[in-house]
């Protein structure tokens, strides 16, 4: 009988998994710095590239360090993360929409 029955089915990462996650995180961070410091891309392209690298890095952290996956034991964690992400998107997009409308209505006077 285990002293901690709640943690029996959770799998913790191996040393190799942590090293792979660390290397991927460092490579993605270096790619982000290179993209900005290179300066050879138009501003919009650089912003889209940074956003894509940020999303990939979030996925790397979730998979390699927080051990989120599609197993039945992780279902509630993935659901909670999805709800949190959706809420943040609604708040950010709603704020940008409201600020844009305020700016347009105030500038017309």
TrEMBL record:
Picking any one GO molecular function of the record gives:
proton transmembrane transporter activity
Q: Where in the cell is it found?
A: Cell membrane
InterPro entries per the UniProt record, alphabetical: Cyt_c_oxidase_su4_prok, Cyt_o_ubiqinol_oxidase_su4, Cytochrome_c_oxidase_bac_sub4
User: What are the record's GO terms for cellular component?
Assistant: cytochrome o ubiquinol oxidase complex; plasma membrane
- How does this chain sit within the bilayer? Multi-pass membrane protein
Keywords (A to Z) from UniProt: Cell membrane, Electron transport, Membrane, Oxidoreductase, Transmembrane, Transmembrane helix, Transport
Gene Ontology BP terms: aerobic electron transport chain; electron transport coupled proton transport
Spans traversing the lipid bilayer: 15-37, 46-66, 78-99
The record's note on quaternary structure and interaction partners says: Heterooctamer of two A chains, two B chains, two C chains and two D chains.
Q: What does it do?
A: Cytochrome bo(3) ubiquinol terminal oxidase is the component of the aerobic respiratory chain of E.coli that predominates when cells are grown at high aeration. Has proton pump activity across the membrane in addition to electron transfer, pumping 2 protons/electron.
The family this protein is said to belong to = Belongs to the cytochrome c oxidase bacterial subunit 4 family.
Q: What name appears for this protein in its UniProt entry?
A: Cytochrome bo(3) ubiquinol oxidase subunit 4
